[in-house]
Amino acid sequence: MKIRKAILTGGGRATRLHPITTTINKHLLPLANKPMIFYAIEKAVEAGIEEIFINTNPGEKDLENFIGDGGHWGIKIKFFEQTGGPQGIAHVVNEAKDFIGDEPFMFYLSDNIIFGSLKPLFEEFEKNNYDCMLALSEVSDPQRFGVPIFDGNKKLIDVLEKPANPQNNFAVTGIYLYGPKLFFEAFQNIKKSDRGEYEISSIHSNFLKNNKNVGYKEITGWWKDTGKIEDLLIASRLLLEEMPETNFSNYGTIEDGVQIKGKVHIGLGSKIAKDVVLIGPIIIGENCILSNCKIGPNTTIGSGCEIKNATIKDSIILDNTYIDVDLSIANSLIGKNVKIIKKTTTDGRSMLIGDKTIVEI
What we know:
By secondary structure, this protein is α/β, with parallel strands linked by helices. It has two domains: 5-228, Spore Coat Polysaccharide Biosynthesis Protein SpsA, Chain A (Alpha-Beta Complex); 243-341, UDP N-Acetylglucosamine Acyltransferase, domain 1, CATH 2.160.10.10. The protein has helices spanning 36-46, 62-67, 89-95, 97-100, 119-128, 182-187, 200-209, 229-242; strands at 5-8, 30-31, 34-35, 51-56, 76-81, 105-108, 112-114, 132-138, 146-150, 156-161, 170-178, 214-218, 223-225, 253-254, 259-261, 264-266, 271-272, 277-279, 282-284, 289-291, 294-295, 299-301, 306-308, 311-313, 316-317, 322-324, 328-330, 333-334, 339-341. Strand 2 (30-31) and strand 3 (34-35) form a beta hairpin. The model has no long low-confidence stretch (mean pLDDT 90). Pfam families: GMPPB_C, NTP_transferase.
């Protein structure tokens, strides 16, 4: 049976990405200057998905307002609020029960970034008539994930959630395929874990213990769960490196004397002064002003930013940020409407710094 429906995550508080995610939904954070969740939507559409259901935090409309009804991708997108507070991602799926009905579906954690196509996963799921199919990837820190357990014949026999001593280096990625009805039946038979959540691994363990037909396939190409800031920066860098040169165009104004090396995109209305050095890959948003600075490589700058005198590389700068200081900035995620300026007096530095901020001076 063809999979035409998908559930994507859009809720949660992403506390590991504070303070940035106190004011912006994690799934709207830009990677290569495109909202993270757009990559998940595009992968789903490419695989043949026609309807997507996205969970949101109660009362939050940012995702819905930004994404719309799916017409941009030629599909239908609906949003549903997560009720009862955070109770684990298996609970997110169960909340969409009425949307899915009696059809097979994909569940996709939208903070997972992959380069490969999902089509081979879908094709194998349909060909083998699986009840469930898991996408696996080899990682250096499997204790952060659900870990598959195999017998001596490489048959999948269990899945453990965040084990302290993983038996292998494989992680169950945030991409899951399910046959009709079975997920919701299994949900009625699992209990909350010690951390008070309905774990997705408990669903898969239930399947395996009840002899359901559970398949697995290792993801081809690169995969990253962007749960930490360093993961976001790695994902952004790799996406920039992989983007074709046709995506890098100049719609701004560049003065004579600007030094440009590699792939550089400059948005409409942006102005680049003659004393600027740009080392690609770089994406500069619309209506930015750059002067006497060196940008790149592996850097994205949001719209409405003004940057003077600084050197910035391997970083993500969000919209409307103002930087005017002789400072080298690297491996950084800088939020919206931030000011980084030079101290003009000698009586100490003035700072307004939110919770969980990291500043190196």
